[in-house]
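Our platform keeps sequence and structure together, in a single record for each protein. Such a record has a labelled line for the sequence and another for the backbone structure tokens. This encoding replaces a full spatial description with a residue-level series of whole-number codes. Below, we set out a record of this kind in full and without editing:
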Amino acid sequence: MGVVTSCLETEKSPDIVTCKTWIGDSGKETLIFPELQEDSPHLIPSLLAKPEVGLCLGGGGMRAVTSGLGVLRGLHSLGVLNKLRYLSTTSGSSWLNGPLAFGKYESLDKFLGPYQTPNELTVIKLEDVGNICEGSFAAAITESRAMSSFAADLVKDNIKLSWLQDKSCGWSQAISKAFLVPYGVGDVTNSTVTAIGTQGRVHEAIYSAAEQMGKAVFAYSNLTLPFPIITQSILQASDERLFLPAEWTPLYVGVPTQLLDSTGLKYGGGWIEPIGFNSTVIKSPDSTLPTGAEGKAVTVELKGNSSLGDAVGVSSAYIPLICSLKHDEHILLLHRIPLGKGKVTDALDRVIGGPSSQYWDQQDWKDRSTEWADGGGCDVLGIYPLLRRKVKRIISWVPGMVDPTDQSSFMAGLDSVALAFGAYTGPLVNKIPNALKNSMGQVFLSDGWAVLWSDVSAKLAPGGPVWHRNKYQVQLNTFLGVPGCWEVEVLWIFNCTCKEWESLLPADTKDLLQDDRSSKLLKLEQIAAFESFLPAGLGQFPLIDTMCMVYSPELVTMLSNQSAWVMMKLGDQIKEMMR
């Protein structure tokens, strides 16, 4: 069977490998999604047996990963998590998708942790997240010190700069240490990925090739879980759009559209198996043969890492990118290192900003060093991969940090939602003109934005979940590769202040929440969000700033369980989406 040679034996050099590539443009519906293609060896039959429903978890650092955990916990409690076909994540929520899909844990129940109703959340229980959820991802979030680890590496190597010469990114290393290492899948520098359960047993070829290359393999193997998609982007500073869309999955990675940047460089369109990513082309495919469901063989020479840790780290590279923009003007984190100018600063710019990968397009097969960046550069919501696949029903968790009290501030705080309707009129995003930004993001008719705003703003005052459900005629978006002329149903659910949930908390927890919100420490938290990454308490709950990277046990327990409660309250709506 062709796919058993999906990755042929490695050549004389362990860095040279032959693998599969798929060519096309998802917006034109000429690029296949191998996991769904019935005649593809990469087909995962169990996915086709599931309802055409996908979940997307939006970005937002620790707020996104913590609330996203609660979303999964609630869906699992409702008995619908195993019915989802896809889980698409971006930025901070990808810290959850990686260990969920690939990690080694005792059971899903323990990984997600128990759902606790608001009346159960006494102060003692808030503090005891590690014991209550032993082995859970909630404990991993509480114990994570990604920024501290990142800063410590900078301190340790401030003079010798040894790790700056590594092809991996220091940020990916820190994120892996925090969220992947606890689940046995944290090797950033010498590993690859695959999926078990394909009809062509693709994983056998991947394991064989990886063994010859001396690489570990981490597999998406629990097929009751949704197929993971992690959004990324390519940072192209010379292009007026700034970021170009990219995806990463267990079976393939790449740019789904055929793009031309402002300098004439081509990007996309197509996929390559992860084991062959970050490479130069040694032998391009035979152009006289059709791509087909099996893909084409391409021989490449690896130039760096392409690991799960890199995928998760790149997807969330917004935070270190902001750090790199600030480090010339400010001291670095809590360690107060004066970085100065010159070689050290230049090196930090390269490493903090995200890893550079050797990327080649599937049009001219030309490679160049390319900086890969946060998935939020093109898709803060994580919704576009699902629309590329024409998923009929989408549950979109939007972990924002603004309540819908005022349309202009809500739009500014959640520009990604308005952009999906081509209706954004707020402050410039990345200095890109609004007309261009709207054209880059629009996939729904503009009048849908006003309907959404009217509904969610009305739902805030009663204090329950803030949500909106509607059907949309999808508009063609050539930049993002979203095909048009079909209908999708979206259940939007927003992270907002839920007075109803807060009213059910025990008295001591209510007092703690009120004290933190009125405390002068709130000002310190706000400073910490941008400067020193001090621990965040409950002062901003649940609208914690994206740049806060250290969460207290109380905050992790509160935020994850409020999100789970929202899912439970919307159980009827969610179950209807699973039809």
